[in-house]
Design brief:
Distance between the termini of chain B: 36 Å
Largest interface: A-B, 61 and 49 residues
Number of helices of chain A: 17
Radius of gyration of chain A: 22 Å
Strand content of chain B: 5-15%
Radius of gyration of chain B: 18 Å
Number of strands of chain B: 4
Largest sheet of chain B: 4 strands, mixed
Shape of chain B: elongated
Strand order of the largest sheet of chain B: 2-1-3-4
Shape of chain A: globular
Oligomer: heterodimer
Structural class of chain B: alpha+beta
Strand content of chain A: 5-15%
Strand order of the largest sheet of chain A: 8-7-11-9-10
Bound molecules: flavin mononucleotide, iron/sulfur cluster, FE2/S2 (inorganic) cluster
């Protein structure tokens, strides 16, 4: 499959963040066009495009907009999810830092479609300080042109955007955690229902949408739903950014029509495995996605096919693990992440993620017990589906899949108190560990 | 009175010292007033106000917790609850250069732990610790969203990508 340049069309241009470069490429024409349409017609176009959310869950975007009640007593909010904290994911950052006006234009159209109140937020992870400054500058340029503020594009629609910086919490990428954080609280997810589209930020209907999802919207308005569906396969449509990292020769962000083959992506586009070693496991959709083995990677990277293969496309953050790495240590590192990021609100996730980390660390340190592999599965079973938000389910993805697929390697640790010969740990065990 | 347990959030260090009350300097005060215009109520301005406070004072001291609470009509407990939830708010003073090494999986595969371990040893600090001269704090952090250019070392607000042990050491020497 050939790489394409749709969402990434501008990023290599000099001065790609400036509004003049964006306007030269036909920018903001889609917004102008959309503001002359009926909001419902915009929603219909997005439905027709079959666009699915790029943040992780793959939920149909047009359908979500359709859930927003008309005439709700409280104002409607549009929140852009630029939290991008799923390990292995670094695609939204490309749009934010290289083509911020694409995101702003997508937000203008989306806000108009859902009859948003005159303020929207881009919730960007606090670490993306540079990205926040790029966005602030781009927003100011758009205000100067009359594309944001009062009566934008000379219409009756008032709309502006504020960049809200997070402060280092993965859970604020979860949409209700994000809403809590925007309201000035600890980012602890809410029980659903009510879904945010009905009651979200400040009690009003709220649409939370990923950066890449919003960046697709101007293309749907400008070129039409049929054009958009020309990429990919039915129900899995549009251009898609893939982030490849880990043990490949050419890591980076690659754009394809959704559904590029994972094996082709790794071996042809990313130059194969570091040091020409063998692939041991590939994670297709960020740290939360169950691992695939070398036999399972002949697979189209779209929402449905990856799900059929027992994993998920998630954020399309592909992490490649080669056969020199100890799988127990790799999973330990991911479990440490989830234990650190659990918001602590519900018991199975708060306690369970810490136990998973501890058991895996114990195995690495030679203290593994015969029953540990099954214990990991049992613990996972008590977290998954029993937690308040999807972080609990995310935490067990890498654990269950690796224990099932690499059980021998886990058992080798128990029996020999060391890593499988030919594999190694990429850290020292004698360093003090910070508490979390 | 000495603290019985320095990590205890309720220890005396958590209480503001009336002799050290704080107030935004005029320029920060202007930025705070602007922040208030961007949010529908005062409470929702808490995170940006804390970012601003950390920019001004380098960390969120108990005095800052109380001051921010008074600005936004929030109790100190509410403010402290938020400060302690989010990683980026420093609850202790940090060095002039806060060196944050991502060790999550993609960076780990590109040998981020070599960098982290080397820095801790070279600077003789424990994880999260600060050198006695107050120059460097070294922290292990989670994925920074830059895995394609692993390993990544963030110093204060800036990302340094595709790092090695040597380039990290050179960077720190240059900063000094
Ligand atoms: C633990 C957790 C973390 C998440 N992190 C992110 C994130 O960093 N960025 C994002 O866009 N979506 C993230 N999501 C998904 C959001 O909850 C939500 O589904 C998404 O923002 C909806 O936008 P979309 O339909 O455009 O994808 C996360 C979900 C969970 C459960
Ligand atoms: S599942 Fe975990 S992250 Fe989600 S609400 Fe419960 S404790 Fe918090
Ligand atoms: S793993 Fe280090 S930046 Fe993502």
């Amino acid at each position: 499959m050939e790489q394409i340049k749709v969402l990434t069309a501008n990023i290599d241009k000099p001065n790609s963040t400036s509004i003049d470069v964006y306007l030269d490429a036909g920018g903001y024409e889609a917004a102008r066009k959309a503001l002359a349409m009926k909001p419902d017609d915009i929603i219909q176009a997005v439905k027709d495009s079959e666009l699915r959310g790029r943040g992780g869950a793959g939920f149909p975007t047009g359908a979500k907009w359709g859930f927003v009640p008309k005439n709700a007593p409280k104002p409607t909010w549009l929140l852009c999810n630029a939290d991008e904290s799923e390990p292995g994911t670094f695609k939204d950052r490309v749009i934010i830092e290289k083509d911020p006006h694409l995101l702003i234009e997508g937000m203008i159209i989306s806000a108009f479609a859902i009859s948003s109140n005159p303020m929207a937020y881009i919730y960007i992870r606090g670490e993306f300080y540079y990205g926040a400054t790029v966005l602030d500058k781009a927003l100011e340029e758009a205000r100067q042109k009359g594309f944001l503020g009062k009566n934008i594009f000379g219409t009756a629609f008032d709309f502006d955007i504020t960049v809200a910086r997070g402060a280092g919490a993965y859970i604020c990428g979860e949409e209700t955690g994000l809403i809590e954080s925007i309201e000035g609280h600890r980012g602890q997810p809410r029980v659903k229902p009510p879904f945010p589209a009905v009651i979200g930020a400040f009690g009003g209907p709220t649409v939370v949408q990923n950066v890449e999802t919003l960046a697709c919207v101007p293309f749907i308005i400008d070129k039409g739903a049929e054009w958009f569906k020309g990429f990919g396969t039915p129900k899995n449509t549009g251009p898609k950014l893939y982030c490849v990292s880990g043990a490949v020769k050419k890591p980076g962000v690659y754009e394809f029509p959704i559904g590029v083959n994972l094996k082709e992506l790794i071996y042809e586009h990313c130059g194969g495995i570091l040091g020409d070693r063998k692939l041991k496991a590939a994670i297709p959709g960020g740290a939360s996605a169950p691992m695939l083995t070398a036999d399972e990677i002949d697979l189209a990277l779209n929402f449905d096919d990856v799900m059929k293969a027992g994993s998920m496309l998630g954020s399309a953050g592909i992490i490649v693990i080669d056969d020199s790495m100890c799988i127990v240590d790799a999973v330990w590192r991911l479990s440490k992440f989830f234990a650190h990021e659990s918001c602590g609100q519900c018991t199975p996730c708060r306690e369970g993620t810490n136990w998973l980390e501890s058991i895996l660390d114990r195995m690495e340190r030679g203290g593994g017990r015969q029953e540990d592999a099954d214990l990991l599965l049992d613990m996972s079973d008590n977290i998954g589906g029993k937690s308040l938000c999807a972080l609990g389910d995310a935490a067990i993805g890498p654990v269950i899949s690796s224990v099932k697929k690499f059980r021998d390697e886990f058992m080798y640790h128990v029996e020999h108190k060391s890593c499988l010969p030919g594999t190694m740990r990429y850290r020292r065990l004698d360093m003090p560990v910070a508490a979390h | 009175m000495a603290d019985l347990h320095p990590e205890n959030p309720y220890s005396r260090e958590r209480f503001p010292d009336p002799a050290r009350t704080v107030e935004f300097p005029p320029e920060a005060r202007q930025r705070f007033d602007y922040i208030l215009t961007r949010y529908p109520n005062k409470e929702s301005a808490l995170l940006p106000t804390l970012h601003l406070a950390q920019e001004v004072w380098g960390w969120i001291s108990p005095e800052v917790v109380h001051y921010v609470g008074s600005l936004l009509d929030l109790s100190p407990a509410t403010v402290f609850g938020v400060v302690s939830f989010y990683n980026m708010y420093n609850q202790k003073p940090v060095g002039k250069y806060h060196v944050q090494v991502c060790t999550n999986l993609s960076c780990m595969i590109w040998r981020a732990y070599d960098i982290y371990e080397h820095l801790c040893e070279r600077l003789a600090v424990k994880p999260g610790g600060t050198t006695p001269d107050g120059l460097y704090t070294v922290t292990e952090v989670e994925c920074l969203g830059s895995c394609g250019t692993a390993p990544v070392v963030q110093v204060n607000n800036d990302y340094h990508e595709s790092m090695t042990v040597e380039s990290t050491v050179a960077l720190l020497d240059k900063l000094k």
